[in-house]
Structure formats: structure tokens, C-alpha cells
Amino acid sequence: MNDIFQIKNISQLHQIIGWPPPSHPLISFLDDTKRPQDLVIEEKYFNFRYVSEMYTIMYKYGITGAIGYGRNSYDFQEGTLIFMGPGQVFEAPSKEHVEELKNSKGWSLVFHPDLIRKSPLGENIDNYSFFSYEVNEALHLSEKEQKFILEVVLQIHEEYSQNIDKHSQRLIISNLELLLNYCTRFYDRQFYTRTNFNKDIVSRFETTLREYFNENKSVNLGIPSSSYFGKEMNMSSNYLSDLLKKETGKGIKEHINDMIVDKAKTILLNSTLSISEIAFDLGFEYPQSFTRLFKNKTGVSPVEYRKLN
């Protein structure tokens, strides 16, 4: 399974999964209850890794088995939403598992970036960070939330399925934005209702961050990236950062910068190291970058801080 198969558009997706041609070139609602009875998926599409150039929102339940996605896999035994952004890799099921998928329940909403490219949603789509979450960070919906989400999705489907007019594009995108905004609300609810679990994650993150600087990893590895902590804690950096914001008011980068400034203050007051030496020890390639961060956080430069204290 070394080859990666590119899925570039809606028509190609329909062909791969054995569905009839789409009624709209840039968006498709795939309802499992409307699956063709004689659905046949060509042998060549099994046991592949795929990368899609589209956004996918997938709701499934009642499946035994799992879908491979990113570094993890997920089974859909609960009613959940999974979000996949363009460029993310997932594994196609085996031929045997496809038979189980045919009996699954749920739906998928897939749309191409070109659908929203000239709209405000296209400019702000990166703000919906859940498209970069790992699959095991899915959104778990209550029964009421499931029904509400489905109503919005069906409205989108109804809009692009009827005769297209000058209002269609705007209404499709408007409903799509409504859907994503409600998903953001429901994710916030999920973060808040898992407070004890989230606090444990926050504690682990803070420990990992302290250890990075206490063990002087910054000298050899530089300033830690958001992805470093995601890998260390086995979750996507976006999910971790969003969780931290909900619990502490600050994302990963803000926590890193606060730690750097805190360490710098201690070094400035307890050593004679030059500003350049302190910057390099903290992982900066250029001392000017360190000075700029320190001043932005404290209101004074490192040199001024040392003199004031």
C-alpha cells in the first residue's frame, strides 16, 4: 500500500465509490439510504491510500470495523462527525470490509475548495480547525444535535439539487457556513463537557513543555513547534491548541512564548550571559527575534528588564 491515489474532484469520487454522476460539479451529499442497490466498486480501488483535494464531513454509525485516517483509525459505533480537509491521507477499506460498509448508515457531505474560493467562507475556512483534527478527535453528537445537523445538510442538498439560478451559489455557501458554525458550537460543548479529561491533557502538556526547556532541548532542537507537542501527546496540534484555548484561554504558541519569556527573565536576573547567548539557548536562530518577542510580552527589551531589576 505504498501508492497514493489522488481524488481531484466530485465526479472522480462518485466513479471510485460506484455512485451515479453528481448533480453538482463542486458539492455532493452521499446518503447511505440512497446507495445504489447494485453498487459495484472496481477491484483497482481497494487497498489503496487516498488523498482528496476536497473537504469531507462524514457521519456514520453501525459499522463494525474501522477506517484508517492519518496516524489513527476510528470505528463508527457511535453517531459521530468526522472532518477531513484537502491533502489528508486515508486508507481505502479492504474488499471484505466494503461489504460491511454497504450496510452502514449515515451520510457524507463533500465539497471542492472552488465552491467557496471567491466567498468570505473561502477566506475563513482555515478558522474551522477541526478539518485538521485526527480521526479519533471526532465530534460526538447528541440525538438532538444529529437531527439538527442533518436538517441543515438536507437543505444544502435540496438547494443544489434543484434548478440552479443566480441565488443558488450564495444560498449553498450560506447554509454550508451555518453548518460549520454549528459544528464549532457543538465542539465547544464537547470540550466543556469533558472538563476532567481536558484538565489532564492540559497538565500533561504543561509538563511536556517544562521538560523541553528544563532538559535544554531548545539548544539543539530550537523552539518547539505546535506539531512537536501534538506528536508527543498523540493528537493533532490543532485539536490540542483548541482544547488549551478552551481550558486556559491560550493556544499552544502562546504557552510556548510565555514559557520562553519566563525562562528568559530567570536567566537575565541570575546570569551574566549576553542577550545573544540567552536567545540561542532558548532556541532562537536570531537574537532580534528573541528581543522582539520579549518586548511584545513585557513592554521592555531584555537589556532594559535586566537594568530595571
Could you explain the architecture of this structure?
With 309 residues, the protein is α+β, with helices and mostly antiparallel strands. It folds into two domains: 190 residues, Jelly Rolls; 113 residues, Homeodomain-like (Arc Repressor Mutant, subunit A). 50% of the residues lie in helices and 14% in strands. It is built from 13 helices and ten strands. The chain has a five-stranded mixed β-sheet with strand order 1-3-8-5-6. Strands 2-9-4-7-10 form a five-stranded antiparallel β-sheet. A hairpin with a 2-residue loop joins β5 and β6. It starts with a strand and ends with a helix. About 3% of the residues have low confidence.
Key traits:
single chain; 309 residues; alpha+beta; Jelly Rolls; Arc Repressor Mutant, subunit A; 2 domains; 5-stranded mixed beta sheet; 5-stranded antiparallel beta sheet; 13 helices; 10 strands; 50% helix; 14% strand
| DSSP helical segment count | 13
Could you tell me the CATH topology label of the largest domain.
Jelly Rolls
Mean pLDDT across the residues is: 85
Strand content: 5-15%
Low-confidence stretches: 68-76
Reading side by side through the largest sheet, how are the strands ordered? 1-3-8-5-6
Helix content: 40-55%
Per DSSP E runs of 2 or more residues, the count of β-strands stands at 10
Counting structural domains, the number is 2
Question: Which architecture of the largest domain would the CATH scheme give at its second level?
Answer: Sandwich
SSE series: EHEEEEEEEHEHEHHHHHHHHHH
What can be said about the biggest beta sheet? 5 strands, mixed
Rg, nearest Å = 24 Å
Oligomer: single chain
